[in-house]
């Protein structure tokens, strides 16, 4: 028994010292965390000698003056036997940096503080956020100009070759505009906490079809959705249905684009199916979306609409399936929990 205890203690010490995150063991003395033992990473990150910090108040060494009240609240939770987790600012020998902080109480008056430096990651995320925002804004403005000028050319030219070229420019600009909108929607959707509840399918599908009919005048969209049928979802389900129908009609190269939306009860789930008479979704793209093929620099799909559908359905705990029908159109099925 004694040998087992020694072995466990040895394993803990090894783990404590080898962790890449800064970890410090402390003792609460009159509510103040006093350093008992820092690991090597703590010494490297905060720039203090391991021998000189032992016995020193932890907060005085690394907590900025403006964050002392917050730190005191963490200490009180530790004293009450509760764990802490937060993103905090702490002083290092390189200046103030941001950390994921986790505080773990141990025995009566001891605890461990773990600090994972995320300053560089947050800065990269901020830079990318600004870059994406500027790119989307400029792209949207420039595409509006391109679309307007292409429309003017189509309406004013008598040359068939010029008209066809302008129509192609307009179509490509419209596709880019759609891609930009989808990217913006994805950013918003992925940044939200998912809360689900009962959503009735019939009125939602009817609203989306009305919108699509207004945008695609040549399309024929039918629906077979029973009244009162509800699934576990939220308002983002409308985005799913709109993306599926938009994909079915926008990329349909027939003279009479058609799509049908049906909903079927299957035990405790509901299967929502969108069928079209278009060219079909390429097999490689189907495998990418459903996860049967890895994303690579050469294999990444051509749009974001189906990715958006996939990620929302996954957040609902649902399932997405894509196949090509015998008539070469696409069949997209999503299965959701019935409410």
UniProtKB/TrEMBL annotation:
Q: Which reaction does it catalyse?
A: ATP + protein L-histidine = ADP + protein N-phospho-L-histidine
Q: Which Pfam families match?
A: HATPase_c, PAS
User: Which interval of the chain is the signal sequence?
Assistant: none
Q: Supply the EC number(s).
A: 2.7.13.3
Gene3D superfamilies linked to this entry: Histidine kinase-like ATPase, C-terminal domain, PAS domain
The annotated topology with respect to the bilayer is: Multi-pass membrane protein
Cite the Histidine kinase domain residue spans from the record: 134-339
Single GO MF descriptor: phosphorelay response regulator activity
- UniProt keyword Nucleotide-binding present: yes
Mention any one GO cellular component term assigned to this protein in its UniProt record: membrane
Where is it predominantly found? membrane
Output the InterPro entries linked to this UniProt entry.
BphY/WalK/GraS-like, HATPase_C_sf, HATPase_dom, His_kinase_dom, PAS, PAS-like_dom_sf, PAS_fold, Sig_transdc_His_kin-like_C
Keyword Cell cycle set for record = no
Sorted alphabetically, the keyword list is: ATP-binding, Kinase, Membrane, Nucleotide-binding, Transferase, Transmembrane, Transmembrane helix, Two-component regulatory system
Q: Which GO terms describe its biological process?
A: osmosensory signaling via phosphorelay pathway; regulation of DNA-templated transcription
Annotated localization: Membrane
Outline the extent of the PAS domain: 8-81
Against NCBIfam families, the record matches this protein to: sensory_box
What name has this protein been given in UniProt?
A: histidine kinase
Please tell me the species this chain comes from: Halohasta litchfieldiae
């Amino acid at each position: 028994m004694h040998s087992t205890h020694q072995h466990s203690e040895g394993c803990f010490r090894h783990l404590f010292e080898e962790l890449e995150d800064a970890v410090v063991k402390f003792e609460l003395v009159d509510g103040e965390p006093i350093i008992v033992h820092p690991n090597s990473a703590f010494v490297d990150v905060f720039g203090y000698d391991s021998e000189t910090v032992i016995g020193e108040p932890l907060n005085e060494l690394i907590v900025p003056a403006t964050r002392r009240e917050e730190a005191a609240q963490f200490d009180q939770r530790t004293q009450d036997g509760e764990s802490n987790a937060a993103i905090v600012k702490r002083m290092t020998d390189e200046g103030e940096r941001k950390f994921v902080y986790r505080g773990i109480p141990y025995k009566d008056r001891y605890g461990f503080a773990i600090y994972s430096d995320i300053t560089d990651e947050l800065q990269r995320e901020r830079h990318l956020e600004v870059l994406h925002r500027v790119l989307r804004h400029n792209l949207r403005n420039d595409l509006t100009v391109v679309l307007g000028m292409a429309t003017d050319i189509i309406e004013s030219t008598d040359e068939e070759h010029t008209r066809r070229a302008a129509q192609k420019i307009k179509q490509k600009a419209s596709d880019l505009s759609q891609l930009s909108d989808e990217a913006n929607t994805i950013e918003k959707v992925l940044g939200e906490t998912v809360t689900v509840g009962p959503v009735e399918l019939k009125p939602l599908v009817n609203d989306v079809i009305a919108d699509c009919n207004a945008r695609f005048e040549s399309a024929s969209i039918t629906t077979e959705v029973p009244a009162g049928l509800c699934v576990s979802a939220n308002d983002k389900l409308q985005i799913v249905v709109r993306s599926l129908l938009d994909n079915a009609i926008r990329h349909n190269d027939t003279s009479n684009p058609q799509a049908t939306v049906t909903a079927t009860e299957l035990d405790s789930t509901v299967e929502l199916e969108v069928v079209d008479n278009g060219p079909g979704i390429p097999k490689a793209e189907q495998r990418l979306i459903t996860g049967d093929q890895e994303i690579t620099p050469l294999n990444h799909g051509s749009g974001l609409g189906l990715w958006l559908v996939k990620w929302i359905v996954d957040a609902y705990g649902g399932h997405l399936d894509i196949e090509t029908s015998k008539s070469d159109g696409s069949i997209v099925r999503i299965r959701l929990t019935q409410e």
